[in-house]
């Protein structure tokens, strides 16, 4: 039968029985209301009186805050602020309710229009009628409307029986959490349009559903323990949901599984009730919706998806849940032109330019370029790499904005379907900006994913020629499917852990969800990483309890292992270290190389093969001996070589640490034995243990080489040293962005995950400089700030780039070797890759080393063949770099013990501390006058310890007086009042007396007079056969300042007489009266050595 839309009680077109009272049309209700007006006043009058009293009571409650403010004595400003918050809340609520009403009205209008026009009663559609790609699906909406009440029943059971127990078990404060009301309402979800994508893979069906939900859903929750009620009443959700039916099988139900996800983030608007009404306060409203959308995106927005298996034992369920990306797009954001000017001055009378920057989006992947000030034709030159999961569907979106202090102005946007990039391979075009003026220049490259390790060298060689900022180009991607773990160790008290996993590659760390109360967790999550060089990178896996304090197991996997695996894939159990004997982790790791396959681009040839380095297309005989390029005379490192910084980490002290030690079965409470663990850039450091102290002072210094990669963090953990297992005392993280930008950070950091405690750290970025003029000053500064508990501080940074070798000896006379090289400075070494069967290997590898004494250390290079032994060696004293131009040597070096030679670049840079509390300058050849551009712009930093300031005296000048007959000793003596210590530094001696045929083996002995016991005696190390020994050693005495002024420091330079004798030969001595020395300045000074019967003088 035909029914007008206005008579329908609901949007569901379905016949109802006239006698059904709940489903009477609205007109029937109206008649009942009119007839009710003639009834005699009875109970209705009491109800009206109660409503009036209730309304009066609500208005009276409004005055309660005013009364309380007056009673407490608060100002009127608090009342006005509360009134403003209330009015803002009311406005947001009214806007949401109005939006819901308008959306529902539009939905009803669309249904009426569809009923009138789209469906023709009693006749067929003509054969010539065709529909666009997006088709209506009213039949599907009718099915959803019919199923909607039953779906509500299912949701009620799901929330009450599954979700509520999980929430109650996750936190002890939520033990009384319950769902008091779950109603999906009468407004069902509508599918506005359906689009089927033909021509995709035959084993799948791909649908795009444009969904719109404007519902009267009502879900109320309550935590009875805290009398807290909250809920949702009304919601809007709109987006494009992609549904993939895959795989298609030959048995019922034909479809093996259904995958669902949103291609882009859907729009969401929620109407809150109860305590969550506070989320409608202006500012919190958009924040709360954003947080919920982030939760939805982590579950149902690409690359995340929901998989519903329809058959048991579905093969490759992990692959369906998190499939490999379709490809990678390398986006080169080059420039823009013709942008509109948004900056105005003098109230708009003077027109300026713009400060443009660009936002690049592909799905949930977002990148922001740098800001170009005052430019309408900016040049960015930045490169980003994005993973593409769905073609068609995903889009590249670029938005250009003008940076302003308050709100950035919109300059235009462009969108491009990723399918066009896939078809073209490479696109290099100017794209017009929509909703604005101007164009943006993009170069887009589609990188295919190849499971072929043989092309890795070709890809790496190509990437070396790609200019990429701010990140270097990637050569591969790694997808880690984290499945499950077994037999993880239990927590203390045999409690089940809440395991989660941290996966790290270099500075990129991703975390899994936590699985509660089990030692056999199942995660079923996927993680994706970009790789610059999989030959040298490692995957670090840490299985931890969700508190991050307890490590349940660890695994380090070199990615080079994947290069030899079939299809670059490992799918197996991995045994965990630092865990239980049977603890293991099941993962599937898939690596794919990023290959640019386009006729417009030709890869350079791999070095060592015919035609290598011959990139000239016009050469008639590519690769022939006639066209072979000349041997390079200098190395060609990438632009990042030698750009490292050195971070100096001062671990000073801590306060208010928690006590972990217990005695007599816990009856007696002790203290803690704290120490600090530092982790940065793959390196770990550990401080000494301070016994029985909740406010320890470590005063230790650590140094690490860091790069300018954004997002780096210093991880700091404090532990209590115990005999069995160390107790956790807290952690904190420090972002290196501030330190790398400003050069200095001195803060007290609050320890996390513990009730109390804070840690005092000082971080300093040392400035490397290519000049040796400041080396002597740096060495003296390091000796001043170095503590007894710390290792010797670095004075320079050595960067080594080993490019290649030639003419290496053949193996057994005819076969070429498989050479590799080892670069070492002191105890630190770096091993290169092994190049298979060649006498002219190309390594293209670099390494950096911290140098403590550049005058005496050397660079050692060993070239060896795999299985054949040494092929040659090189020893390069760093003193040669100190006299080289800009402290750099870059040429071919002949190898000793063999006929070969290597092309190597060694670059030394002096590490200058600007925040050490030392004002260091030279009097003879001041670096301030030689390099004003380096020093002029540096602000003067006042030290936190003024006692450490030092001025180098004129005695350091080469024009000083000659040494005495017994020689001289160079000392620095000062009092450090902050630590109540007398400090002396023995720098060196010179022109010592030689009594016998051989030079002496000198050392320095120090004694605080009048005490002559062993407690005040200090002794330096012994130097062999030299008249000019260098010590640079620091000694400390703990005593008050007034007592130090009553002492005398006796300094003796001695030499061992012989190996068998205990006698010591006195070479000279000096006695310093500390009352005559300015201990607050601590000047480095030469003192003449005297005989035993004489007193020393400076």
UniProtKB/TrEMBL annotation:
Residues 1-44, 609-641 are annotated as: Disordered. It is a peripheral membrane protein; Multi-pass membrane protein. The chain crosses the membrane at residues 66-89, 243-263. Residues 310-431, 452-578, 626-749, 775-897, 965-1087 form the C2 domain. The keyword Membrane applies. GO terms for cellular component: endoplasmic reticulum membrane; plasma membrane. Keywords: Acetylation, Calcium, Cell membrane, Endoplasmic reticulum, Lipid transport, Lipid-binding, Membrane, Metal-binding, Phosphoprotein, Repeat, Transmembrane, Transmembrane helix, Transport. GO terms for molecular function: calcium ion binding; calcium-dependent phospholipid binding; identical protein binding; phosphatidylcholine binding; phosphatidylethanolamine binding; phosphatidylinositol binding; phospholipid transfer activity. It is found in: Cell membrane; Endoplasmic reticulum membrane. Residues 133-311 form the SMP-LTD domain. It comes from the Eukaryota. Belongs to the extended synaptotagmin family. Interacts with ESYT2 and ESYT3. Interacts with ADGRD1; inhibiting the G-protein-coupled receptor activity of ADGRD1. Interaction with ADGRD1 is abolished when cytosolic calcium increases, relieving ADGRD1 G-protein-coupled receptor activity. Interacts (phosphorylated form) with SLC2A4. Binds calcium (via the C2 domains) and translocates to sites of contact between the endoplasmic reticulum and the cell membrane in response to increased cytosolic calcium levels. Helps tether the endoplasmic reticulum to the cell membrane and promotes the formation of appositions between the endoplasmic reticulum and the cell membrane. Acts as an inhibitor of ADGRD1 G-protein-coupled receptor activity in absence of cytosolic calcium. Binds glycerophospholipids in a barrel-like domain and may play a role in cellular lipid transport. This is Extended synaptotagmin-1. It comes from Monodon monoceros.
